[in-house]
Amino acid sequence: MLAVRHCRNLCAPAVFARHLRSTTPALRASVPTTTSRGGAVTDPSKYFDGESLAEHQARTRVDDPSNRTYNYALIGGARFMGASAARAIVVGLLASLNPASDVLALASIEVDVSNLQPGNCMTVKWRGKPVFIRARTDEEIEAATSVPMSELRDPEADDARAQRPETLIVLGVCTHLGCVPINGAGDYGGWFCPCHGSHYDTSGRIRKGPAPLNLEVPPHSFVDDTKIIIG
């Protein structure tokens, strides 16, 4: 008799609701969406204080402190790993843009021209390119300064190319296809490129042939009368 009475009391809606609220979230989540009692379908949402079963399950999962700790740790770890990967990519990209150590070592060179005599030309290597340093005679200087600008394909005054009239410094690279011109040759006494027939005068300016521009003047400065820094 006591067992039957206890079973009847437990089956009462109010008693069942209290019993359901006292159980664990996992047990409450196992309640079916509908129940049949006496041939009628009963909505179990009234046992969750007006919440639907889905809302109640979602709330109990969010409110579980162990789940919150796990979610925060997972999200925080993912963000940290993403930030670390982005930083590594940026640092690697910036490092790749820096010039190599051998390039930095040749960024500038010092050249001794104490043995260079008027009319002669010496060649040095700077950044992998030949550089012509020519000690010009008075006749070569006169020939370079007396040319009208209207006759030049790439007009440029001689004093804008030579810091000191007696010393001209140009890259030994033809502006047509990058060949190395021959010093003291050609129709204008400067340089001649035998590959395609470009003629440069004693100021390194293009006068004849397919080259479109004058020989480039690299950045340079004079330390004194016998030393030049190129670069």
UniProtKB/TrEMBL annotation:
Cellular compartments annotated: Membrane; Mitochondrion inner membrane
- Which Gene Ontology cellular-component terms appear in the entry? mitochondrial inner membrane
- InterPro entries, alphabetized: Rieske_2Fe-2S, Rieske_2Fe-2S_sf, Rieske_Fe-S_prot, Rieske_Fe-S_prot_C, Rieske_TM, Ubiquinol_cyt_c_Rdtase_Fe-S-su
Q: Which Pfam families match?
A: Rieske, UCR_TM
Q: Which domain of life is it from?
A: Eukaryota
Q: Provide the topology term for how it sits in the membrane.
A: Single-pass membrane protein
Residues annotated as domain Rieske: 161-229
Keyword Repeat appears in the UniProt entry:
no
The entry assigns this protein to a family as follows:
Belongs to the Rieske iron-sulfur protein family.
The remark listed among the other comments is: The Rieske protein is a high potential 2Fe-2S protein.
The name this protein carries in UniProt is Cytochrome b-c1 complex subunit Rieske, mitochondrial
- Organism listed in the record: Prymnesium parvum
